[in-house]
Every structure is written in C-alpha cells, then in structure tokens.
C-alpha cells in the first residue's frame, strides 16, 4: 500500500513510466543537492575529481 508521503501516477500509455517518490528517491535527491552545494563551495576540488575520473575511464575504456 502507498503511504501518504508517496506519490503514484498511473501510466496513460505503454510509453509512460510509473513515477514513485519514496524513501530512496528522497535520499538520492538529498545526496544530489549536497553534492551541488559542495560543488558551489569548492568547484576546484569537484573539477579535479571529474577530470581524474574521466582520465581513468578514458584510459581504461580506450574507444579505439
């Protein structure tokens, strides 16, 4: 059963997906908002992490 804090929508067609807002969605949203706030406070750290992760992924995946 859905609690009063969960929202559910019924798909009108097969192409529409069902949207649920539950505890995991709220946690994910909170983590994402925290990451954005941290990125605004320390953009150089976030940029270096993104560059490092991109470098390692690019090196390991080698698209050619």
Could you please describe the fold and organization of this structure?
It is a single chain. By secondary structure, this protein is mainly α. It has a domain at 23-61. The chain has helices spanning 23-41, 43-61.
Strand content: under 5%
Biggest β-sheet, characterized? Answer: none
The radius of gyration over CA amounts to 19 Å
Main structural class: mainly alpha
Order of helices and strands: HH
The number of E-state strands comes to: 0
Low-confidence stretches: none
Overall residue-averaged pLDDT value? 77
Tally of contiguous helical segments = 2
What is the overall shape? flat
Separation of the first and last Cα atoms: 50 Å
What is the helix content? 55-70%
How does the SSE layout of this entry go?
Layout: H1 23-41, H2 43-61
Task: Briefly characterize the structure.
This protein has 64 residues and is mostly helical.
Features:
flat, mainly alpha, single chain, 64 residues
């Amino acid at each position: 059963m859905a609690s009063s804090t969960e929202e559910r929508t019924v798909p009108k067609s097969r192409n529409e997906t069902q949207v649920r807002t539950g505890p995991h969605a709220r946690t994910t949203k909170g983590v994402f908002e925290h990451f954005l706030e941290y990125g605004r406070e320390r953009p150089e750290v976030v940029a270096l992490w993104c560059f490092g992760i991109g470098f390692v992924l690019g090196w390991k995946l080698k698209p050619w």
